[in-house]
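quick one: zinc ion bound model?
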Amino acid sequence: MKSFTKLKKLFTILPGVGPRQATRFVLSLLNRDETELVEFARLIANLKQEIKLCTQCFYVGETDRCYICLNPKRDASKIMVVEKISDLESVERTGHYQGHYHVLGGAINPIDGINAERLTISQLNQRIKNILSQKNKKPEIILALSPTPFGNTTAIYIEDKLKKLQDQIQITRLGRGISFGTSLEYVDEITLKDALERRN
Ligand SMILES: [Zn+2]
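yep, here:
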């Protein structure tokens, strides 16, 4: 019973998991076979060693660059700025975006003590400057933050930060259609694809 309670408690540290859901997780694991559980435990135990954040876009990878940044077929002059890794994955699932990303690590949220310095905004700035120094295509920065008050605050902050580069870059936002207050990760693929095509 002790392991059951302990494991249950561990699951509740995950976002959105309450005690009832945690019980379901533990019971479901009980039904898997031993090898699967060992693999599961091994992956968790090695998580920090094996998974690293991409030093360019802050998505996950196994080296210092993720597979998106390493893909020569993707358009490096387009950077889609998202709050979270799960938002990036939602856009990837649409299969309709061939540029690069920049994961901020959240949105400016004074209530939770997340200020601009905690996000990767200065790294974004540096990245854009590097692209500009290569004098290739005019970079497009797509602000794909969630249409929430915190997402909007963050978008305005970034726009302001990039103001001095405004003649050299194009800043766009996702088109309307995503309902207000929805986190990007929960938007269905068709709506997201549409918002991507109608960016302005
Ligand atoms: Zn990357």
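Residues 54, 56-57, 59, 65-66, 68-69 surround zinc ion (CB under 6 Å).
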